[in-house]
Amino acid sequence: MNFKKILPQLLTLVVVILVFGFFSYNAQVNMENRGITFGYGFLTQESSFDVQFSLIEYDGSHSYFRAYLVGLLNTILVSVIGIVFATIIGVVVGIARLSSNYLIERTAAIYVEFFRNIPLLLQIFFWYFAALRALPLPEKAEPIFGVFFLTIKGFFIPAFVWNNLNIFIYSVIAAIIAIFFVRLYAKKKQENQGIQTPVLLISIGLLIILPLLSFLLGGVNASIEIPVIEQLSQTSFTYKGGLKLPPELISLALALSLYTATFIAECVRAGVQGVSKGQKEAAASIGLTPNQVLKLVVMPQALRIIIPPTTNQYLNLTKNSSLAAAIAYPDLVLVFAGTALMQTGRAIEIVSITMLTYLTLSITISIFMNWYNKKIAIKEK
Amino acid sequence: MFKLVKRLTSVVAMFAVLFTFTTETMAAKKSKTLKNTQKKGFVRCGVSQGLPGFSNADAAGNWTGVDVDVCRAVAAAVLGDSSKVKFTPLSAKERFTALTSNEIDILSRNTTWTLSRDADIGLTFVGVNFYDGQGFMVRKNSGISSVNDFKAGVSACTNLGTTTELNMRDFFNSKGIKYEPVTFEKADEVVAAYDAGRCDTYTTDKSGLAAQRIKLSNPDDHMVLPETISKEPLGPVVRQGDSVWEDIVRWSLNTMIEAEEYGVTSANADMMKTSDNPAVKRLVGAEGELGAALGLDNEWSLRIIKQVGNYGESYKRNIADTGILPDRGPNELWTKGGILYVPPAR
Fold first, then answer.
1. The pLDDT value given to residue A353
2. Is residue A119 domain-shared with residue A213, that is, in the same domain?
3. Which residues of chain A are within 8 Å of residue B165 when distances are taken between CB atoms?
4. Is the CB of B94 inside 8 Å of chain A's CB atoms?
5. Which of A136-150, A333-347, B58-72, B280-294 has the lowest mean pLDDT?
6. Mutation to test the B interface, candidates A34, A48, A229, most B Cβ within 10 Å
7. A-chain residue closest to B186, CA distance
């Protein structure tokens, strides 16, 4: 009886092992025939290629492993920017779709239908090649607020030059810890005495006051470095100083967030509509204000419907960021699975590392969102 | 009686199986790629995604170029018809994987011969069909007339996964110039980005610059700087491990170059059968048994010359007459001051 239960599982396991064994054996034999060696030793070799945009210090004299980190960080950067903006746009558009104002509702609907029905790669090409051509050359750029320069070579913005940056960071961390305790205290107070504390106002106050103190007492100061135009030749210019956001990053983040926002908007709309009307009416009838109805009754229930499909969208966005290779944004696929693969020829090693990396990224996002989902789920008592 | 017939048939069947097995192994010993190509009836050739003069498809899908002609020569030699080629356009990033994973049998895609590519990743370079070097393209009105005029902060557009990427770093490092590399997977995207003004310079092999220049919106506003910063011997590549196929591709290319050296053209090849020069006679298959050594018939080289032409004809048709690089430079025969020199076919 027990054996009958185990047999199918055992057979599946054997088949899986056989299939994997066949493919790895096959790869081994073919690689041997063609004189291809296998190994991860190349990761420590000098990469000898440069990357245009990197969050950590990197040039061709660093190792392939460092090049991998550069690509990974750039992928994470564009994904985080994309997720943040997609969420903001998505929530706004999703709520706008529920508006009773015809114009707002239609505009939001048209936006959703337009952007989600055009292939993402095409949108990326549009934002990069079509929008890029419309941007001015560096020497013709009109400054925005006098210090921002949006040009064909990138978005040049002022940068902060910090003194005692670590003290400033400590003050921010201290503020966050303080907020945590304030929240604990407020919760207890409400449970014991039924009095609500304005947590949000206190939090904002803490976040402003503590870092401000670090400026006044901690010797922290920041000066601002404004980009200055520089001539490279008779007709070509660029900006020096400040921070430079490459146009590739901007177009990619723009395309990713506008595209993914349409799906998030639909999730939000579905979530809010999924809360039954009776809930709102009941909440109103016990005297909650419309704000409290939204905050305490509708949103907690809507979020349960919104979170799981939105997690999928976050995962999609992260994976879609690999389309960066098409427009020269140095993400993981372009730097590592592109240039590094070409220069070393280690296809199996590099592709396997890249796949594992995306898997890890996706699972991390998944775990976080599942944790959040569990946290807001109905707690059956 | 019935039993006997049955037994006899099984014996015959066994012999038949044994026999096919032995002939099969003999053919396989010859060359697996050659056998597969003859069975399929076409040569599988990897080319670029569009580089005028080297490998470029017209509106009707007909491929032309000096790289294309190498594959056509192999098709003429192996299959007797230079049109029996299946072309696969590949990006720089895809090309080697396509070859090692058996998608194509020849990679003839302006590919630079380097030690690490030859030795490390399962490839074999069979020869050089174009001697090139890396250069820079700039806007004429920029006032840059030499690579020494580049300043720190210069942005350079180029192709991903090429030797260009490495040479560029070597070059700017040696000059002590901080630069911004902008690398794209497809050549058309590089051209579009440079054209839009994203980059100050576009760098790749000089032949590539000359060919891509015509794709710019105002080709006359751009020029290629005189300096050459690297050696780029471009040539066809095959998979490692099939030496017969390697020899066929190598000698198909060599035949085209040698034919030019001896003045054999597509027009006069048949007449050359009665030439007084034994080298010429060998080249058109009127003397010797050179084809047998490659597992081919003796007219293989004659077909190459008749159907594709010699190297000079191919160069003139694809590169000179199209205005890409009218001057042959180093790609002239050694007898005429160039460096094209192939081992003798004998």
1. 94
2. no
3. 49-50, 339, 343
4. no
5. A136-150
6. A34
7. A326
Residues A120 and A214 occupy one common structural domain: no
Q: Looking at the structure, do residues A124 and A259 belong to the same domain, yes or no?
A: yes
Mean pLDDT of chain A: 88
Task: Please indicate, yes or no, whether residues A339 and A376 belong to a single structural domain of this protein.
Answer: yes
The last residue of one of the domains, among A149, A184, A218, is: A218
For residue B55, CA distances in Å to A331, B62, B163 come to: 30, 10, 19
Contact list in A for residue B139 (CB cut-off 8 A) is 235-236
Judge whether A110 lies within some domain: yes
**How many domains does chain A divide into?**
2
A246 and A311 part of one domain: yes
Whole-number pLDDT of residue B157: 93
**pTM of the shown model:** 0.80
Q: Cβ of B197 and A338 within 8 Å? A: no
The nearest alpha carbon in chain B to A35 belongs to B122
In chain A, the residue whose alpha carbon lies closest to the alpha carbon of B164 is A49
Report the C-alpha gap between A221 and A200 in whole angstroms: 27
Question: Residues of B132-159 as b/e, b for ≥16 C-beta within 10 angstroms?
Answer: bbbbbbbbeebebeebeebbebbbbbbb
- Residue B143's pLDDT is 87
Determine whether the interchain pair A345/B117 forms a contact, defined as Cβ–Cβ distance below 8 Å. yes
Q: How far, CA to CA in Å, does B120 sit from each of A63, A199, B26, B213, B247? A: 19, 63, 30, 34, 20
Examine the domain organization and report whether A260 and A350 are in the same domain: yes
The confidence band for A347, taking pLDDT boundaries of 50, 70 and 90, is confident
Superfamily of segment(s) B134-230: Periplasmic binding protein-like II (3.40.190.10)
In this structure, how many other beta carbons lie within 10 angstroms of the beta carbon of residue A205? Answer: 14
Is A192 found in the same domain as A103?
no
Domain identity same for A116 and A251: yes
Asked if A233 and B144 come within 8 Å (Cβ–Cβ), the reply is yes
CA B169, CA A161: separation in Å to the nearest integer?
29
Task: Decide if A139 is inside a domain.
Answer: no
Residue A60, domain member (yes or no): yes
Inter-chain CB proximity B193 and A132 less than 8 Å: yes
Classified as helix, coil or strand, A272 is helix
Average pLDDT on A223-231 reads 81
CB contact under 8 A, B241 and A35: yes
Q: What is the CATH number of the domain that holds A94?
A: 1.10.3720.10
Confirm or reject contact between B196 and chain A (CB < 8 A).
Answer: yes
**pLDDT of B15:** 53
Task: Confirm whether A317 is domain-assigned.
Answer: yes
Q: How far is CA A381 from the centre of its chain?
A: 36
Please say whether the beta carbons of B226 and B87 come within 8 A: no
Residue A92 domain boundaries: 26-129+240-381
| CATH no., domain B33-131+234-336 | 3.40.190.10
Q: pLDDT tens, A56-108?
A: 999 888 999 999 999 999 999 999 999 999 999 999 999 899 888 999 999 99
Q: Which among A35, A51, A343 has the least Cβ separation from residue B122? A: A35
Instruction: Please judge whether A132 and B173 are an interchain contact, meaning their C-beta atoms are less than 8 angstroms apart.
Output: no
Mean pLDDT of A283-305: 88
How far is B295 from chain A, CA to nearest CA, in Å? 22
For residue B146, the distance in angstroms to the closest alpha carbon of chain A comes to 12
pLDDT of residue B11: 55
A15-63: per-residue pLDDT in tens? 999 999 998 888 888 777 777 778 888 899 998 899 988 899 998 889 9
* 3-state secondary structure at position B88: strand
Ranges of chain B whose pLDDT falls below 50: 17-28
